[in-house]
Amino acid sequence: MAKLVYIIVDGMGDLPINALNHKTPLEYAYKPNISLLLSHAAYGYPSVLGKLAPQSDAGVLADLGYDPVKYSTGRGWFECLGLGMQPKDGELSLRVNFGQVAGGNLVSVRTFLSADELKILEEEINSKVAMPVSFRFKSGEGYRGGLILAPAKKALSQYVSNNEPGYKVKFYKNGSKLSFATGVKIKKVEKIKAIRKEATYTANLLNLFIRKAIEVIKKSEVYKKRLNNKLPPPNYLFLRDAAVKDPALPDITKNFGKSWGAVVGMPLEKGIAMASGMRVISVQEKADLQEDLNNKGERTLSAMKMFDCVYLHIKQADSAAHLGKYSEKYAIIEAIDKFVISKLSRALDVRAGDTLVLTCDHSTSSELKRHINSNIPVLIINKKFGQNRDFGEAGCKANHLSELKKATDIMSFVMRLL
């Protein structure tokens, strides 16, 4: 049976950069292993969410064939599910960032902490923060975490704002919910607000949690040691994308009649894979890029023996772009070519019908340091296609499949190739 490997590189798309000879990091990167596959290649250049700059939850959902406007109930659900927190209908699930403020103004929405520091803060928050409702907090990767509040006397509501500058929440008539990257236009950090009157109780609870958690964090040994060592102290919590309902994604294995495995390390992507019915092959995100990519490549090869289709998620390109490091971003793409694509190109038998897809969930501008609403580059390797060249944003824009107008079109198109 033909195999499919579907790779989503977080934030791989970008805009042309003057310092890279007016090329994007993807176009500038040296990609010999991808180039060898272009004898049977087709390109796509679909929109993800039109004029809105998507977060990763919307982008991954769309790439996997789920319309985020139809299914998303808030990123917090997937984030907490991926952290192993088992959110339930009626509970309020949120994504959390450890960050830093000064004088009420934003310094950073990302204060990177070690795994040990995160675990200590997780334990202290759970044991020392007193709330009128029960809650559970769990740390994630780097600066991330998940929070779940359980309802008590009153129902909890998803109709609350984010307190993280640069991410604006949008609600749809069908009850779905998404946040979009807007860029940080105002540095002042505001409290979480009720968007509907029914959410006033929920907003007050979240603001209370933030205040009490910050008090605990500032008394912790982690905080004191970071100050002594002149490291950025995590003195604020940014909460976003509250959800109170299971998104109930249709099972991807039943949709297409193929078995699916997911090689994913980040909580959000784990949660989406779990919710879609994939079997998650959990991998630890490793600090060393080569070690991380080698590990993910090997785990993908193993998964190909067990499943018809394998979804692989790679994070680092997005992180580099958010920091404005375009040279690091193209180096990451080169490493993906060297340590992942090289392995997969030897294992996939394109002449026998195997298929490789390489795309991204959204574009992240290395100069703007944020997600943008650009269309995304898509590479599809399959025996039904002929020679192509210059895989990158410009190549995809100039020579793309007309069938792929939206990112939600990719999955059904690819599955028809198998």
Task: Describe the 3D structure.
By secondary structure, the chain is α/β, with parallel strands linked by helices. It folds into two domains: 4-71 and 247-415, Alkaline Phosphatase, subunit A; 78-243, no CATH class. It is 35% helix and 20% strand. It is built from 15 helices and 16 strands. The protein has helices at residues 25-28, 32-37, 56-63, 68-71, 75-82, 115-128, 200-218, 221-228, 252-256, 267-276, 289-304, 316-322, 326-347, 393-398, 408-415; strands at residues 4-9, 41-44, 92-102, 105-108, 135-139, 144-149, 167-171, 177-181, 236-243, 260-264, 279-282, 309-314, 355-359, 363-365, 370-372, 378-381. A seven-stranded mixed β-sheet has the order 2-16-13-1-12-10-11, with helices on both faces. The longest helix is centred in the last third of the chain and has 22 residues, at 326-347. The model has no long low-confidence stretch (mean pLDDT 96).
